[in-house]
Design goal:
The protein has 266 residues and is α+β, with helices and mostly antiparallel strands. It is 24% helix and 30% strand. It contains 4 helices and 10 strands. The strands form 2 sheets. Strands 1-2-3-8-5 form a 5-stranded antiparallel beta sheet, with no helix packed on it. It has a 5-stranded antiparallel beta sheet with strand order 6-7-4-9-10, with no helix packed on it. The radius of gyration is 55 Å and the shape is rod-shaped. Keywords: Membrane, Transmembrane, Transmembrane helix.
Length: 266
């Protein structure tokens, strides 16, 4: 309702065209009327009244014009913006990750004992069968086995080495016969890795892992373990019959050497 009244007032103000000449002519005609025979004083009052009436009319017209002009000059209120809420977008669809025809299992390294940087050997790798794959020479005693965590796609071979005296020189070599593209996936040992120079290469139809004790380092007396990990190369269930190891050492009592194979899992 208020907007309609405002609109009509603005239209009336815009259409209004005041005739100033006509208004002045009417005022002059009123002032120039026939003389009234009265005393000078009443005539003066009448003239004064006419003049005041003219001024009042002019003031009213002027005030009305200003009011209309102010209403016209005042812009209409801006309409409130309309906020349109978009429809909910369909949920994003992510493509599933690609899958391989044959996954490569990844076996985590052995658990590390609290406060120690060396892995803690598991029961399956530190307790091989005492009657299979063992070798002994002087202070050295060794045993090799295929770790129980091995699968038809991936294998871990473990070597347990015991020495009754410190060693000042040590070379450990493990050879994994190629049975269809075996590839290295990792190694670990219970002795500090920085004490050895480790190499892995494919040579003579076998994957060869070799640890060499660095000059100035010493292997303490005790039980130590070395392990190699590799993919089987799509050969299915793999036989470790052709795999082997060799250990050459030097200690305070002289040199010693042990060698052997890897007993299969049971």
């Amino acid at each position: 309702m208020n907007e309609d009244i405002d609109r009509r007032l603005r239209e009336a103000a815009e259409a209004h065209q005041p005739d100033r000449a006509r208004m002045l002519a009417r005022v002059e005609r009123g002032m120039a009327g026939p003389a009234v025979r009265h005393r000078a004083r009443p005539f003066a009052r009448s003239g004064t009244r006419v003049a005041l009436a003219g001024l009042a009319a002019g003031g009213i017209l002027t005030t009305g014009g200003l009011a209309v002009a102010a209403m016209v000059a005042t812009p209409p209120p801006s309409p409130k913006p309309t906020v349109t809420t978009p429809a909910d977008l369909p949920p994003a669809v992510s493509s599933p990750p690609p899958t391989s025809a044959r996954p490569t299992p990844v076996t985590p390294p052995p658990a590390t004992a609290p406060g120690s940087s060396r892995p803690t050997p598991s029961a399956t790798t530190t307790s091989p069968s005492p009657t299979v794959g063992e070798s002994q020479d002087g202070p050295l005693r060794s045993a090799g086995s295929v770790d129980a965590k091995s699968t038809v796609y991936w294998t871990q071979s473990d070597l347990v080495l015991k020495t009754t005296q410190p060693l000042t020189a040590l070379t450990v070599e493990i050879r994994i016969v190629q049975t269809g593209g075996a590839k290295n996936t990792g190694t670990w040992q219970t002795l500090p890795g920085d004490d050895f120079t480790l190499t892995v290469q494919d040579a003579g139809g076998a994957l060869v892992y070799r640890w060499v004790l660095k000059p100035g380092q010493t292997v303490p007396a005790g039980t130590h373990e070395f392990a190699v990990q590799f993919n089987n190369g799509g050969a299915g269930k793999r036989s470790a019959a052709g795999d082997g190891y060799r250990v050459d050492a030097q200690g305070t009592g002289g040199s010693a050497s042990v060698r052997g194979g890897f007993a299969p899992t049971r």
